[in-house]
Design brief:
Low-confidence stretches: 1-21, 248-265
Mean pLDDT: 78
Strand content: under 5%
Largest sheet: none
Organism: Bosea massiliensis
Number of strands: 0
Helix content: 55-70%
Keywords: Signal
Order of helices and strands: HHHHHHHH
Distance between the termini: 16 Å
Oligomer: single chain
Protein name: Lipoprotein
Length: about 260
């Protein structure tokens, strides 16, 4: 099991004290990624580590590699709600992304995107279909870079665990945080895959209800954009992982199943 290195009550109190601050600072920068400031760079990772540890989840104190940092930045787009009017869900997503809240609490409902899409003022129904198509296309364009980034992280994690478990120069105390980081990385990849699937469901729900409410030829463009997004999402959700969550998607047989996993994100 992943050992807890600090008292649970103390960790929970520290994480809880920062939750409101981080929620208030959950702003976005370029490309929808978290803004690079003291909140996203220092406070959020520390509070997330304390909160995850307090919940008994795998949490590593290791510094992030460049690819791990980039993976978390790229994940931001997909774990956030599909429309900026979903303010509450955006705050929940930001806290889950920082691991202050468990990912299971960030659920949402598929009608939310449609409600946000039709809740504002638009010149015509064409603009609603155009926004839907633009959102689906933007997701599609960003999935490829995320997948490539994820593949680099998974490859590095295989090297990490091979060195941690076989090198006589690695202290035993390094093994748990190394495995915890692998769990964190793989958990994030699986979460993004889940959220991409949820986005596709939300887009399809929105399209169907738009067609019922205000039929338009623009629906064809939106439908094609969603289909293209589905095609791009397929390889992401089928990429070989180490398999630390006990699934059948691991790379080498048996890898990742050597230790019980406590991370639930």
């Amino acid at each position: 099991m992943i050992r807890r290195s600090r008292p649970v009550n103390w960790l929970a109190a520290r994480a809880g004290a920062l939750t409101l601050l981080l929620a208030a600072g959950a702003c976005t920068g370029d490309l929808g990624r978290p803004r690079q400031d003291i909140v996203s760079q220092l406070l959020a990772p520390q509070a997330g580590f304390w909160a995850a540890t307090a919940r008994g989840e795998a949490a590593s104190h290791f510094r992030f590699t460049d690819d791990e940092e980039q993976l978390r930045d790229r994940a931001w787009r997909f774990v956030m709600p599909g429309h900026e009017r979903s303010v509450f869900q955006a705050q929940t997503a930001a806290l889950a992304h920082a691991r202050i809240l468990p990912a299971q609490l960030h659920l949402g409902y598929r009608a939310e995107y449609f409600q946000a899409l039709t809740g504002g003022s638009f010149a015509s129904q064409a603009s609603r279909y155009a926004r839907l198509a633009e959102d689906a296309n933007a997701d599609r364009i960003l999935i490829g870079p995320f997948r490539a980034n994820a593949m680099r992280v998974v490859a590095a994690d295989r090297v990490r665990m091979r060195a941690a478990e076989t090198s006589p120069d690695v202290a035993p105390s390094q093994l748990d945080p190394a495995f915890a980081r692998v769990v964190e990385n793989e958990g994030l990849i699986l979460w993004v895959c889940e959220r991409v699937g949820f986005r596709i469901e939300s887009y399809r729900y929105a399209l169907a209800n738009l067609v019922v409410e205000m039929p338009s030829r623009e629906a064809i463009r939106a439908e094609r954009a969603i289909m293209a997004l589905e095609a791009e999402a397929g390889p992401l959700c089928k990429m070989p992982l180490i398999g630390v969550f006990g699934g059948e998607r691991g790379g080498a047989a048996g890898e990742g199943d050597k230790r019980p996993v406590t991370y639930k994100g």
